[in-house]
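Exercise 3.2. Students should predict the tertiary structure of the chain below and write it as structure tokens, then compare their answer with the key that follows.

Predict this chain's 3D structure.
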Amino acid sequence: MPPVDTLPGRGTRRPFLYGYAVTPDRRAALALGIVLFFAMGLRLTVAVSWPSISWPDEIFQTMEQAHRLVFGYGVIPWEFRTGARSWLLPGTLAAAMELGRPFGGLGHVRAAQAALALLSLAPVFVAFRWTHRRHGVAAAVAAGLAAATWFELVYFSSRAFSEAVAAHVAIAALYLASEDEQRASRVLLAGVAFGLTVVLRVHLAPAVGVALAVAGGRDGRRWRCLLAGASASVLFAGLLDATTWSGPFSSFWEYLRYNVIEGNSARLCVKPWHAYFTRLGAVWSWGTAAVLGLAVAGAVRRPAAVAFAVAALATHSAIAQKEYRFAYPVVAVVVLLASEGLGELVARLRAPRAVSACALAVAWAALSGWRATAFESDGSCGFTRPGESMWHQQAVGIEAMERLRTDPDVCGVALVRVHWAWTGGYAYLHRDIPLYDASDGRLFRLLEPAFNAVLVTRELLPVLRGYTVDRCWENTCLAKRAGTCAAGAEPTLNQWLEYVGG
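Answer key:
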């Protein structure tokens, strides 16, 4: 137990810890720091220990393009040949990768993951702060730990999805816009964050619009600050497109043309309007009642957050293309509200708050762990295997690229019936050697002198002559042949993608 002393010039006795007075504010700051440190450690441990691919966009629309900016080489999908994606998120990740460059190996990837994980602490921070304001440190710790340990928030924390990044920025905006202390600078920052949310994920524009309406209310001063901040973010995105693509907002118009005008989004992952409800029910199972019940308790004082979540869910339910990651902003806000609801419950129980906080945090973590073990793929879009653990889904592509990265004898890699989008790309290969799509037999024979390693499906191994199996993962194997590679063979993977429009 820390020693107790009397502060000079005061008649009250306060606890001292290593020579510093532990005032209520310091105690709260210390508790918040510990919760954030735990949450960050959990997120980075999962990212490093369980590599997986939820969907190719988390690599090839973001991490791969950031790698290309920093190191000068990478796979170029059609979006970055036609200008259908903004450079905002890849450019930000590139800055993080640059910081990780001196560490060598996969230091650039780890730095980007750390930056994403740091941003993902927004729900943890907000849950703690909102709860502490009303119910003190013990309840705030329970709320912060609830947001820190919920499995979906951990799973998406270090994934470079625009949906995940936009969700965390939106939560920061909701926090800044809902604080009791209505300083103009805070409201302006809320507007900036709301604008960034739209820039990162334009599908969230209706949700941001209703959240702004609730947050602005009838206060003209708040409206001016919110709109000024949001306009600044949108203007920055337009200028970025003008600098990097063909003109202001060109990436947004190109994206709109391809997905809406040409109707391509309605041809992939088309599901009924209730798909998100059924999927969430399957993922949360009997825990749905607990999560939603606590969220209702936490939602009483958070009308802007409720408006955002409801509008986002309605908007995405109306869009034909449905993937679970699209619903993550809704999930993140609902879990945030449930975390605050858990803090409310701690405050209402008759037991000592420290005991209640500990018991409820453990119960919540157990619920999260239970559902995490059952977090499986639903075979979305026919590209993943139903029932496969989301924590290990398509890990083969990342592990194979990491293995190739550490073999100095490999001078070219062919993908044989292994789709390039389900690999780790150059972000994980991290060597400037050619990649080839050699799934066609004639193309394989033509290009074979240019590569000495292949990623191939297991059933094709018997027809490969002169290759030795290095390692197999389920249905995919890495095989190598002796010798060097001839230079200049075409088409490389990027040339092939440009030809087929992939």
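Discussion points: The CA atoms of residues 87 and 240 lie 7 Å apart. Residues 1-12 have pLDDT under 50 and may be disordered.
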